[in-house]
Amino acid sequence: MAMHNPLGTHIQVWSATWSADDVRRTAERASECGYDFLELPVRDPYNLEVEGIAKALQDNNMFCCTPFLHTLETDIGSEDKVIVAKGEALMYDALSAARDMGSRHITGPAHTALAKHTERRSDLGRRNAIEVLQRVAEQAREMGMSLNFECLNRYESNFSTTCVEALDMIERVGADNCFVHLDTFHMNIEEPDAVAAIRRAGKRLGYFHLAENYRGYLGTGSIDFQSIFRALADINYEGPIALEVFSSAITNPVHSAKLAIWRDTWSDSIDMATHAMQFIRCQQSNAERRINL
Ligand code: MN
């Protein structure tokens, strides 16, 4: 079995902003490094140059996947009906922008607010989120899009931070276009066993993020990528895989503050992206060879 996952990088590996010009410049460089797609966040759908971005991607034979996240002001898992309604309305606008940019996958924590939460998520909040996600998933289905819910770590979310919890949430949403989005950085904190989490997700794994435990160069930290890639091959995962590394040298300061990126763990985008591409290809071919034995 050959692994043919589309490979991508987050826009913030290259650029702190994603105007049409930024996307064009980045798409040129990233496609030269061998990537198939860019991750372009749609958390602020009103300020995206949607048509220009779609054209810039098309001209470089690339596509995009579109991370979405809530803030506390639009948290669909809130107990406050006004906040929940605001969050739901924002999601429809984000879906439209994503579709118009050519995206087929919403990724990231679309079910929760990325924030340092100080209380456990309430049952009422969970129910509110699931009701909204049922309607949003239906809308996404009509647009030919999937929703991939990312399990973040405990310092960034208090809702579905493990694969098992996300699978349970998806079952309650009950839509066939909803999947789990796993991330090696977060799994390193929350999962007792990342390989078991990937196997447990199985066919419900829809999206995958690669990052070292300290978001530096892949293979220079403590993540066991060999086991991770073997597990991905074992479940025949054919979905997108994206590099998500951040450095305060490149990343937008607001985003850096949210994700606690306080250091430059790297500074050269092309070097980082080229190294990651070689690393991923090597891991994939090793995993494949093992399977063919
Ligand atoms: Mn991630």
Strand order of the largest sheet: 1-2-3-4-5-6-7-8
**Major sheet summary line:** 8 strands, parallel, barrel
Helix tally equals 10
**Quaternary form:** single chain
Instruction: Tell me what portion of residues adopts beta-strand conformation.
Output: 5-15%
Mean pLDDT: 96
Textual characterization of the structure:
This protein has about 290 residues and is α/β, with parallel strands linked by helices. The protein contains ten helices and eight strands. Strands 1-2-3-4-5-6-7-8 form an eight-stranded parallel barrel, surrounded by six helices. Helix 1 runs parallel beside helix 2 and helix 3 runs parallel beside helix 4. The structure holds manganese (II) ion.
Summarize the structure.
The chain has 293 residues and is α/β, with parallel strands linked by helices.
Tags for this entry?
alpha/beta, binds manganese (II) ion, 10 helices, 8 strands, eight-stranded parallel beta barrel, 293 residues
Topology at a glance:
Blueprint lengths: L6 E4 L9 H13 L4 E3 L10 H10 L3 E5 L13 H20 L4 E3 L15 H20 L3 E5 L12 H11 L4 E6 H7 L3 H8 L3 E6 L14 H10 L6 E3 L9 H6 L10 H24 L1
Parallel strand pairs: 1-2, 1-8, 2-3, 3-4, 4-5, 5-6, 6-7, 7-8
Helix pairs in contact: 1-2, 3-4, 4-5, 7-8, 8-10
The structure holds manganese (II) ion.
Manganese (II) ion binds next to loops.
